[in-house]
Amino acid sequence: MEHNVCAIELKGITKRFGEVVANDGIDLQLNRGEILSLLGENGSGKTTLMNMLSGIYFPDEGKIFVNGEPVSIRSPKDAFACGIGMIHQHYKLVDVFTAAENIVLGLEEGGKLDIKAAEAKVRDICKRYGFDIDPGQKIYDMSVSQKQTVEIVKVLYRGADILILDEPTAVLTPQETDKLFEVLRAMKADGKAIVIITHKLHEVMALSDKVSVLRKGKYIGTVKTSETSPQALTDMMVGHAVTLNIDRPRYERPVKRLEVKGLTVLDGEGVKKLDNVSFTALGGEILGVAGIAGSGQKELLEAISGLCLVNQGEILYTPDGQAPANLVGKTPMQIRKAGVAMAFVPEDRLGMGLVGSMGMTGNMMLRSWKKGPGVFLNRKDPNELALRVWKELEVVTPSTDFPVRRMSGGNVQKVLVGREIASAPSVLMTAYAVRGLDINTSYTIYNLLTEQKMKGVAVIYVGEDLDVLLELCDRILVLCGGKVSGVVDARSAAKEQIGLLMSALGGKEAEA
Amino acid sequence: MSHEKKIPLIRLAKRDGMEGWKVWCIRCGSILFALLLGALVMGLAGANPVTAYGTMISGALGKKSAVRQTVKIAVPLLGCALAIAPCFKMRFWNIGAEGQITAGAIAASYFALFWANRLPSPVLLLVMGLAGALAGGLWALIPAFFKAKWNTNETLFTLMMNYIIIGVVRWLQGGPWEGRKGSQIIPQFDEAACLPRVLGVHCGWIIVLVLVVFMHVYMNHTKHGYEIAVIGDSINTARYAGMNVGRVMMRTMFLSGAISGIVGFIVASGANNTLYDGVAGGVGFTSITVAWLSQLNAFAMVGISGLLAVLSKGAETLQTRMAVPTSISDIITGILLFCMLGCEFFINYKLIFRGAGRKEARHG
User: Fold this and answer.
1) DSSP-assigned beta bridge partners for residue B12
2) pLDDT digits (tens, 9 = 90+) for A280-303
3) Which residues does B155 contact at the CB level (< 8 Å), separation at least 6?
C-alpha cells in the first residue's frame, strides 16, 4: 500500500443536536501510514466526529472523502465498505463466544460458517502485527486488554485500513499501553491510517505523527507532533494558557482517621472481592487507590460506606476527639451522619449518587430528604445549597431544576462532588471523580480535593490515571485482585513501580 | 449529484426540549388524529362517522342520566389509576390492581352482609371502607414482600394473584355467601351498606376526587414521594442515600393496594350493591392505560379517565341506536393509546427529510 496518500479527508463537517452544535465546519486530513491524535476537552466533539466516520451519525453538512472519492456513510456497514473500522470505548463482544466467533459475528459471507478457516485467518492477522490472543479462547476468560485486542482484530478482519480508537488506553496498565502502542506502530508501518482519541498528552507525544485539536465543536488546528509540546497543545485545547502542575502542599499534623483491618468481602457468588485488606487513612492526606479496573476499588468504598456486606475485618473510624468506632454493621445512613462521605462516579456517571431525572435541587435533597419533622419535604434548604454549588463550582445549567441527566459530564460530576464536600465530611471518598472530564474541570476537582485535605479531611481518591495519582496524592495504595499489593509514597514512587504492583500479585496467584 | 441521492430519505434528530405549550399541542393533536382514525374504523363498520360520534357524545353526555352513567364508569378508573401511579413511578409494575380491587370488595362485602343490622349506616360504611383498604393493601403486600426479600418478578406475581382472588369470589358466590340455594348469587346489600347518592351518583366520586388531591401532594411534596421518585430512577442511588428500598416498596404497594381496595368498596357498595366475580370488570387493567396516558399526573388522570368513560358509555349507545358493536370503543381506546404514546416520539425527536437540511441551514 502506498504511503503519503490521502486516506480520509473531511470538509466542513457540521452536526447539530437540537440547539447544540457538536461539530461546526470541521476539516481534517489523514494520510496512509500516519497516526493522528484527536485531542480536545470533553464535549469538544471528538467522539461525535468519529461516529460520523463510522456510520453511527450522519452529518448535517459537509463532505467525506475516502481515498480521494466522495462517499456517503449511512451505516456502520457503509463504513466497513469504505475500510473504516472503529474501536469503541465500551467493547461490544459476546461473553460466551470465543474470540474467533466474535470476530466473524455479523459478517455476511455466503456458504457455511467455517470457523477453522476464520481462526486461521485471525492467527494470520495476529502474527502480522504482533497481537497475542488465542482465537479459541472465550471472551469471559479474557483480560480487558485481551478484549480490546479482539476488537482491533475484528476490524482488521473486516479489511479496515482506517482505524479509529476511542480512548483505548483508559482501562490499560502502563505495560499494556506500551504493548498497544507497539502494535499500532506496526500497523502504521503497514500503511494503515490510524486515528486515536485521547485525553492523555504524554500518549499523544509518544505515539502520533500529528495532532488535530478540537475545542467546543470547532476545529482549532493540526500540528506535527515533532514540532509541538504538551504545554502548547494544552493551550490549544483550552484556548488560554493553563498551568499543568497540581499544587501539593503538606498538611502539618496528620491524624489517624480511618483504620481498616483485615477487610474481606465476598460477592453474591461467594467470590472474594476484597481479601484481607488493611490500611490507614490520615486526616490531612490524600490516599490514592490504584489498580486495574475491577480490582476491588468499588467494593472497598462500598464496604466503608456500609453499602455492601463485610464478611470479615474491622473498619475503625476516629472522629475528632473521640474514641475509634467500628463502622462494620452500621447502616449507610449512620455512617454518613458520622461524617464519612462518598462520591462514586460510575461509568454512566449517574446511577450511583445522582438522580438523572431530577434537577440540582432534587439531587442535593438526597442528603437531607429525611431531615425535618413531619411527612413533608423541605425544598428550601436543598435549593439554597444547589444555588451555592451552582455559583461556587460554576456549574453550567439553565436552572436548579434542569434534569442532571441532560447536563454535560463535567457538570454532573461537579454536582456530585460539590454535594459531598458541602456536607463537611471528615472522610471524603471519591472514585473516578474526573472520569471523562477535560483538563480544566479536572483541575477544578483536584483543587477542591486538595482544599479538603488542607482542612484536615482524610481524602481517599480512587483514580485511573497514574500520572495524576502520582501528582495529586500523598500516598498510593495499590490493589490487585482484591488484595493490597503495596503502599507507596507518591512523592518518590515511579510509575513503572506502581504498574508492576498493579499486576504483580495477580501473576503470582495464577502460578499458585 | 450522485452524492445527493445517497443521503438517507429521513433522518432523526433529537430535540433539545420543547416549550410546554407546544408539547401539549402535539398531545392534543394526537388525540384528534386518533379520533379521525377512529372515524375511519366506524366508516368501515358501516356507520356515518359524524353521526356516530354525535351519537356517542349525546349518549354519554346528552342527558343527566347519561352523565351519571358516565361518571359511574369514570370513578373506578380514576381511583385505580391513582392507586397504581406511585408503583409505576417506582418502576414497580403492579398489574394486580384487578385483584386488589376484588380483595377490597370482598372485605367490604363481609361487613355489608353480616354487620348491617348491628351498626348504624355511617359507621358501617366507614368500617367497610377501612376493611376494603386493609384487605387490598395486604393483598398487594404479598408480591411486594417477595420482591423485596427474594427479588421475584412482580409483573407475573401480581398478575397471577388476580386469578386467585377472583376464584375466591366464585367460591363465596357458590358456597358460604350464596343467597338462594343454587342461585350462585350473593344477595343484595342492605340499604345501610350502600353508599349514599350525591347529585344522583353514589358519593364515590367525592372520595376519588379527594384521592386525586391526596395523591398529587403525596407524590410531589412528601418524603415518601421523594423516596419513590429516587427508587424509580435508580435503586443504587436510593441505597446510597440510605433508603431502605425493600421497605419503601412494601409500603408503596400497601398504599397502592389500599386505594384499589377502597375502589373495590366503592364499586361493590355504590355501583353494584352486591359482590360478584366481575366486580373489578377489567378496571384494574384499563386504569394502567389511564395512568400511563396521564404521565402519572394525578390531575391529568381526571381528564383521561373521563375521556375513556365517555368513549365506553358512548359506544353502548351506539350499539343500541345504530347497531355498531360496542367493541368499537375498545378499538378507539387502542388507537388513542397508540397515538398518544407515539406522539412522545415526535416530542423527543424531529424528522429531517432529504434536502430539507440545506434549506434549514440557509434560513439559519
Assistant:
1) B351
2) 999 889 999 988 777 888 889 889
3) B93, B95
Grid coordinates belonging to A450 = 486538595
CB contacts < 8 A, A to B, total 92
Residues linked to residue A14 through DSSP beta bridges, in sequence order: A61
Nearest CA of chain A to the CA of B229: how many Å?
9
B283-293 and B97-114 are packed helices; what angle lies between their axes, rounded to 10 degrees? Answer: 130
pTM beyond 0.90: no
Q: Find the farthest-apart pair of alpha carbons in chain A and give their distance in angstroms, rounded.
A: 77
Is A236 near chain B, with CB under 8 Å? no
Kindly report, residue by residue over B120-154, the tens digit of the pLDDT. Answer: 999 999 999 999 999 999 999 999 999 999 999 99
The pLDDT of B284-305, averaged and rounded, is: 91
C-alpha dihedral over B147, B153, B155, B156, to 10 degrees? -120
- Alpha carbon B285 to chain centroid, angstroms: 7
Burial class, B122, CB count within 10 angstroms (exposed 0-12 / middle 13-18 / buried 19+) = exposed
Starting at the edge strand that comes first in sequence, how are the strands of the sheet with A69-71 ordered?
Answer: A69-71, A61-66, A6-17, A20-31, A218-224, A210-215, A35-40, A193-198, A162-166, A84-87
Tell me, yes or no, if B180 comes closer than 8 A to chain A by beta carbon.
Answer: no
Q: Which residues of chain B from 233 to 252 reach within 8 Å of chain A, CB to CB? A: 233-234, 236-237, 239-242
Enumerate domains of chain A plus CATH numbers. Answer: 6-238 (3.40.50.300), 255-339+425-511 (3.40.50.300), 354-424 (no CATH)
Whether B6 sits inside 8 A of A336 (CB atoms) is no
Q: How many residues are given for chain A?
A: 512
